[in-house]
Automatic annotation (TrEMBL):
Pfam families: DUF815. It comes from Sandarakinorhabdus glacialis. InterPro entries: DUF815, P-loop_NTPase. This is ATPase AAA.
Length: 276
């Protein structure tokens, strides 16, 4: 091979994604992509006690995860609802709590573009003697009935259904993971079907596969202030409710995410580090 070809081959090798092959038997945090399984450092997660306004959701998710970690019957979980209300962070926080208790369970995050590789991931984990939670974050299946049917089959009913030591935790802004409004439905290729009820039932059947569905709703003012107060106490910061409300007004929203952003601003202005 000539020198120019060698240089081109070396450049292509540098650009190609590395082949990862982490050992799923060790560690608590993983990411799965088409390239393979990679172990990752623990992400930032707030202590469970800091979550306000989602007490029932927190308790149910934690109890289900503890059962799964203990090898008891447990559900696949769908966390749906308002943005910024802690769906994703609560999944991480619950898993961090189990990891701190040395529970033999691992969280494996899979991005939406890699959904089609889930059967390969299940095969990869099938022989590992521990419990796994597959985390699909911010999932939305806009008009993609192929992915809807594939995921439905993997959850329940297909010959490639997920193994018994694996459960899914899925977050979405949509209650049923599919378009809800009439305008969205009109844009769907089945909008002119003779019996739209059959089409709707077929598409909503995916959400029915989740035994535990937890709704997260818009944040009222008292709940928002309680979240800000919790963060301030945990970070050792002064709490000014008027400043917290002004911050939310400037962003046109009240949520757990906005409360955290206000806390970051307060800590930065005070020259304080955040150690959560």
């Amino acid at each position: 091979m000539t020198d120019p070809l060698l240089r081109i081959a070396a450049a292509l090798e540098r650009l190609s994604p590395p082949i990862t092959d982490a050992d799923p038997a060790h560690g608590h945090w993983f990411v799965w992509t088409a390239a393979g399984l990679a172990a990752v450092p623990p992400p930032r997660s707030a202590p469970l006690a800091l979550y306000a306004g989602v007490d029932t959701q927190r308790a149910n998710l934690l109890e289900n995860a503890r059962r799964h970690a203990a090898g008891l019957p447990a559900h696949d979980v769908l966390l749906w609802g308002a943005r910024g209300m802690g769906k994703s962070s609560l999944v991480r926080a619950v898993h961090a709590s189990l990891a701190a208790d040395n529970e033999h369970i691992a969280l494996v995050q899979v991005a939406q573009p890699d959904l089609e590789t889930l059967p390969r991931l299940f095969t990869r984990l099938a022989a590992t003697d521990r419990r796994f939670t597959i985390f699909l974050d911010d999932l939305s299946l806009d008009g993609d009935d192929g992915k809807v049917h594939a995921l439905r089959s993997l959850l329940d009913g297909g010959v490639m259904a997920r193994p018994e030591h694996i459960r899914l935790a899925v977050t979405s802004n949509r209650r049923n993971l599919v378009p809800r409004s009439m305008a969205e439905n009109d844009a769907h290729p089945d909008a002119n079907a003779v019996n739209m009820r059959d089409v709707t039932d077929d598409r909503l059947a995916l959400a029915d596969r989740f035994g535990l569905r937890l709704g997260f709703h818009n944040c009222d003012q008292p709940t928002y202030l309680a979240i800000c107060r919790n963060y301030a106490g945990a970070l050792g910061l002064p709490f000014d409710p008027h400043a917290a409300l002004a911050w939310a007004t400037g962003r046109g929203a009240r949520s757990g995410r906005v409360a955290w952003q206000f806390s970051v601003e307060t800590a930065g202005a005070a020259g304080r580090q955040i150690n959560l």
